[in-house]
Amino acid sequence: MNDVMLKLKPARRERLADVLYGQIxxxxxxGQLVEGAKLPSEAQICREFQVSRPVVRxxxxxxxxxxxxxxxxxxxxxxxSRPSDKLTSFAASAEIASYLRAxxxxxxxxxxxxxxxxxxxxKAQLNQIGEALAALEGAFQRGETGWEEDFxxxxxxxxxxxxxxxxxxxxxxxxxxxxxxxxxLSLTRRGSEERRRRVLEEHRRIFMAISGxxxxxxxxxxxxxxxxxxxxxTGSHGxx
Amino acid sequence: MNDVMLKLKPARRERLADVLYGQIxxxxxxGQLVEGAKLPSEAQICREFQVSRPVVRxxxxxxxxxxxxxxxxxxxxxxxSRPSDKLTSFAASAEIASYLRAxxxxxxxxxxxxxxxxxxxxKAQLNQIGEALAALEGAFQRGETGWEEDFxxxxxxxxxxxxxxxxxxxxxxxxxxxxxxxxxLSLTRRGSEERRRRVLEEHRRIFMAISGxxxxxxxxxxxxxxxxxxxxxTGSHGxx
Amino acid sequence: MNDVMLKLKPARRERLADVLYGQIxxxxxxGQLVEGAKLPSEAQICREFQVSRPVVRxxxxxxxxxxxxxxxxxxxxxxxSRPSDKLTSFAASAEIASYLRAxxxxxxxxxxxxxxxxxxxxKAQLNQIGEALAALEGAFQRGETGWEEDFxxxxxxxxxxxxxxxxxxxxxxxxxxxxxxxxxLSLTRRGSEERRRRVLEEHRRIFMAISGxxxxxxxxxxxxxxxxxxxxxTGSHGxx
Amino acid sequence: MNDVMLKLKPARRERLADVLYGQIxxxxxxGQLVEGAKLPSEAQICREFQVSRPVVRxxxxxxxxxxxxxxxxxxxxxxxSRPSDKLTSFAASAEIASYLRAxxxxxxxxxxxxxxxxxxxxKAQLNQIGEALAALEGAFQRGETGWEEDFxxxxxxxxxxxxxxxxxxxxxxxxxxxxxxxxxLSLTRRGSEERRRRVLEEHRRIFMAISGxxxxxxxxxxxxxxxxxxxxxTGSHGxx
Lengths: 240, 240, 240, 240
Hints:
Four copies of one chain form a homotetramer. Chain A is mainly α. Chain A folds into two domains: 16-88, Orthogonal Bundle (Arc Repressor Mutant, subunit A); 102-234, GntR ligand-binding domain-like (Four Helix Bundle (Hemerythrin (Met), subunit A), Up-down Bundle), CATH 1.20.120.530. Chain A contains twelve helices and two strands; from the N terminus they run αααββααααααααα. Chain A has a two-stranded antiparallel sheet with strand order 1-2. In chain A, strand 1 (69-72) and strand 2 form a beta hairpin. In chain A, helix 5 packs across helix 10 and helix 7 runs antiparallel to helix 8 (147-160). Chain A starts with 15 loop residues before the first helix and ends in a 6-residue tail after the last helix. The A-C interface holds A 65, 67, 70, 212, 214, 217, 220, 223-224, 227 and C 65, 67, 70, 212, 214, 217, 220, 223-224, 227.
């Protein structure tokens, strides 16, 4: 492990933690920060990036949650793994941080949607989920990213929850969800066959649990799918 | 138990299940449907209210979830308890159903907010939650409903979750949340001293769990509070 | 779909529902009950098997939860899928039902263990989990079932939870857990390479989440693993 | 806040963390450690008590989770609140720590039991839960602690879960559960009327959720009850 200079441009924008997250991510992806490299201390980053301590902490916490760095108490923070360099070719790095953040409310909302859908879906709603699944599969076979079909699938589940507030809230997240889906699925399209198979299988399980009217199973599979989707973006499981 | 005539006006609006829910609620509150009375069969309600079976099922399912009716398999559906007649003086009955529905996405979103807030809140954010709590207590002492203070408390928790999408989504629910808070707290204001004490205590626990940085506890207390708030509206626990 | 005669031997033992579950499972596995076949009505099964209605309901509910039959309200219960015929060569069919039942307390206990282990594990405890994982991989490579290594892994997670009551309770379930692990892993050994890969990956994820000190992730991956293990026994996902 | 001498007797027994927890608890209850007092550093406690760092951390973590001390990062650990001095008159302080530990597996197991009971309970099983509830109320009216009735209630819920492994596991925890119930309810008997009312209400809610066949509600109310029971022992909510 070796200590490195981290190059930071002072920033003055709303989500400072995102910008900082993005700059560090960029340097990991770009190879300036290699695996095992030690990041500067929180205090140093504060000074150099000209932000307060909580902003630095938030950015580091997210990088750690994404499996990109690891903090060892009393020693420091180290680069842990390097995500696909394709990642930063799809979006500006601050935008990537913002896409990743969308998974938090999605986990909360969509896990609940899946459970309610398993209890309440009408036959017509189930068919709509099934059709979105088939459309996603078709898009993959045609070599497309399938992000519109992906969004349609998740919206159909929200509609099957039998409470119109759920699709409304998902619509509020639409732009950010689509951005993250496009990015994730672009990586998947260029990734292995195995990776596409997994994405489909995760959706299929959600469909089956809703079809089988098992709310606990539907919640589990939705939560698993969203967690894995996020991990596929940050690359924390490798190319899968 | 005796069979009764249920008077229904055919309706043609978007949320038919809400309108149906509201009409039945009104007759229970108004005393036309007394405890133990048997509702007409699903098929009869379909015909009379001129809606499809899923609409009737949804309305009955919600009435049952709210503890207002009870279904006995193969026998029928019976009126179980009668909510405060003050209830329908605050809002049109279809509106009440819509307020109640807001608790579903709130449970999903706010439970998660409370957990994240316990992990991430800054000292300033914690103070803001504490101030909203004090303001709610003050409002109660002045004999006000305190619904604005209540909303401010929940928004402060969402802000402490460290992800700006949470307060944004809560803002989307603002009107419907405020409606339900105003209704619930109006009932509370006219209710017993004990009831006000409970409302405050539930908020205080959420604050303490976030202050103590215990995410599981914060989730539990938020979930408990929202569940109890809903029950206070439908009156399923009595005047508490 | 065609109606079939279900051959049942009246039974008088403690877990009547298990025995009934086992007899129906046996006839599905053995091919007497083919896909799409309609089971006799609850009332008929009561009479023929000479048990009360709740016993029949419990057995049918479990068969449905295991994806072996499907109930269509007001129409009847139908055979949905046929598990591997290897299944009943490993254990008497009532024993299989008892093994499957062990997953319920395991889901409750071990999900919590995984979460606590992520928060509390010492370095030595983490190493022990890692060694059990390596041992399981080794067993698979040598063509063994690896059920002792599997049990050792789960026990190591329970020990890392920092509360000696968890390993004690797991020891109480030891015999039934080992029976179900032996059965599941025997099916896996004879199954596809893909299936072994999945079993290892599920364990590896649990290890990584505990190593990364992420309690929510550890809970999710443990719950996913146990759910999938159960599904691998009943064959509800096919040979995976 | 003032720095104090903490008197510790070196110990060599299996659950060192419990013994250490108990000694500190005793000094808080006994008044040697007053509110606001600063505990010695982890390193000092290690030396004086002659145990390793993880043992000290575990004891402090539990004291903090129980609301008895609070850690301020980089500053130290301080006494936060003083539980009822009646507490240590009921049991040796290491025993108290062991009773408190029983709540962890109980939360995992009994939350799940309550959910399954809501889905599966027969009418006879529901009656048994109701009778245990009535017996607990009777015991309170006669001025008894009611701990046997309390255990009977929880066992009846486990039996209604429809899986004999749950009551079996609860029986394994019987002695430790009874110890903690006896202690908690002795405190309750000497406590306020309000406190007894709450204990009954918590049980009544669990019963009602199981009766109303609402698994999510049953899980929530069981989790709430167990969390509050634990808090009543450590006194972290005051005399309630």
